[in-house]
Amino acid sequence: MDVEMTLRVDGARYRLVVDTRTTLLDALRERLGITSPKKGCDHGQCGACTVLLDGRRATTCLALAVAHDDAEIITANGLAAGEELHPVARAFLDHDGFQCGYCTPGQICSAVGMLDEVEAGWPSHVSEELAGGVELDDEEIRERMSGNLCRCGAYANIVAAIREVAR
Amino acid sequence: MTGLLEPRAIGTSLERLDGRAKVTGTAPYAFEHPVDNGVYLHPVQSSIARGRITAVDATEAEALDGVIAVLTPANAPRLVSGDDRELAVLQSDEVGFRGQFVAAVVAESSEIARQAADMVGVTYDRQPHDTELRADRDDLYAPGVVNPDYPTDTSDGDPDGAFASAAVTIDETYTTPMEHNNPMEPHATVALWAGDALTLYDSTQGPNLVRDGIAGLFGLPADRVRVIAPHVGGGFGSKTLHANVVLAAVAARVVAGRPVKFALTRQQMFSLVGYRTPTIQRIRLGADSDGRLTAITHDVIEQTSRIKEFAEQTAVPTRSMYAAPNRRTTHRLAALDVPVPTWMRGPGECPGMYALESAMDEMALACGLDPVEFRIRNEPDVDPESGLPFSSRNLVACLREGARRFGWERRDPIPAARREDGWLVGTGVAASTFPVIRIPGSAATIRRVHDGRYRVEIAAVDIGTGTWTALTQIAADALDVPVDAVDLQIGDTALPPASVAGGSSGITSWGSAVVDAAREFREKYGPDPEDGDEAGGAMPDNPDTERFAMHAYGAQFAEVRVHADTGEIRVPRLLGVFAAGRIINPRTARSQFVGAMTMGLSMALHEDSVMDPRFGQVANHDFAGYHIATNADIGSIDAIWIEEDDPHVNAMGSKGIGEIGIVGTAAAIANAAHHATGIRIRDLPLTADKYIR
Ligand code: FES
Ligand code: FES
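A: This is the predicted complex of the input protein with FE2/S2 (inorganic) cluster.
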């Protein structure tokens, strides 16, 4: 069944028609031609499709587009302010936090969302305390970024990039 | 080799030139090239591992709204060449492995294509299959050569006699499981026919390899096929020419004029684009009472597919690694009803050196020697295999520098002697090696364009290796201009041809072609050319390859913690020291080394494709079941290198660095785990259950 819906992506508004089975990721990539979020597994197992969905990091392959009518989506491309890269993207460049680049937009969106979660004091599996704030050490970064796989093995540089931004 | 380039841009950490496009996600990968009126393909895969298709019922699928075509072996366009049974897609009713393409749906949307593919009914005449690799099979055979063209077996001296009379011996068998490359970007192709010309936007390591292969299958001159691949999301050996590309091209024939989009799912990748064969490796080492090796034998058993042979060269690194007068290596294969194995990062070296370097650790202990010292003691003066001198060999320097930086001298050699907070702690070392490979067939063109700029063209690819950046640096130095005066064009067979991005051979092969073109250009036009001046070059022959053995070397040091109660294993520290000739770009080179070591850690701890012999398929065929290292698996991990001037390898003085980083990592970790626990695990991966005793 086809459904008409609205998405707001990187500041622009789109009307589009989707199959009710269409994932949010396919709606972006195949209907709107917005290919910054990548498809690595289509099963919520790799994080390549991560965007900021209504302000929080989310894997778009696990979301049905119709369930997100009028949602606000920011992709890695939308994080930049014109020519100026987002500080996290800049840090990824400075620290060579990628190689093939396929996991990278997802890593960057995930890092941006993760830093907000830390700011809000959300604990992780490795946090010592459940309340009272988080100190974002390397162990916390690694744990919180482990939903984003990188087969090129850029993890060490990704941690360095995020560490620098968080400082 | 004469005329080593004067490094100016070479050796600097230029930021990736494709970096901005990658961090924003705007660099177009294969599936992302905008096309008009595209259609989607979804394949039907065989549910048996061996037999014949007796009927394909497409009635229901064809009736579905939005379905354009259902391809079957009965109606698919014929290919002119069917010799390669992996690539003879939908050309016969034979099934050679589970997961093989047996039909495909082309539809207006991916959702419809997938739904319709489920509706296609396939019936089979099923035959008994056999997918189990065992050392005691009676049908093991010796292949003609091992990948790509090494002798299958070698023997020098009297290895059995020397082993029998050796003062110290070990005789152990090591196994590595089936492993899948799993680049993050699934294999994807967009195929479009216009008349008898085919354009492929393909996720590939070898645009020319795909072009030539596809042209051959369709009986076309190569220039009728164009392959475009400006950005590729990893490959690690799996992105050559496989059945998925052929299927896209075949299907596009049926809907000529409309581009067919075909991306494999992660699950499909486990049966269609190759994998590393499982290996069973028996190693015997004999030494005299001083710890000098007298005998080395390395006998390998591995698998291939019944429909096409791939023989991994697992014992080949053992042929030239250590000095011993008596040596033997052998390879035996079982041809099974399984998908075709292929290259996976460091084919041969990676699994082979896991076994050899584990055995070297065991032997050092047996000889009562420090493992670093034991390796140095068995360093050969010349290549034991060929008798040739090494163009450069700095394994000893890597071992010594690594030992110094890692704090090796403080190491207590006794296993299972350190415990901190319930964790058993140990350290281990292993050596790395990889040959300097050059693949013929690369050419480059250089043209002076406006504003004093130079356009450099070659159909090379960047699969994450940093080609955009490194090749620009090489071109700049070869032309003696700043890097920002170079406009590099790669990733398109409309450009001069390039060899495959494999065997860590890219920079050697493409860089040599670019340097040759630049020298040609300067010879012709001097330092002040006119706009439009153009010259071409190709990778020159290198007579030094006949006079020297050429390899890169490295040493990897690991700290491992194994939890005394749960067996959980962690790697808090990993250091690699490499000697790989001149480093073109330290920033991207470090990423290559560290990335490969990360993949080696992944191999050591996690990777294991579990073949279910009842069905003949990999049971854990996604990232939930096939674990690769995540960020939380990595502790402190670093790579450094020692200066190495090798005037013999090529004009850049570089040896190739894409694979050596994964060679030896698993052994260093396994050796450290033994040092921590006293438990020697000889079967990868090193999972927690194996350390609970
Ligand atoms: S594509 Fe969405 S998590 Fe992998
Ligand atoms: S950069 Fe290639 S998968 Fe992360």
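Residues A 98-104, 150-152, 154; B 184, 234, 464 surround FE2/S2 (inorganic) cluster (ligand 2) (CB under 6 Å). The helical segments of chain A are 24-31, 76-79, 87-94, 104-119, 138-144, 155-166.
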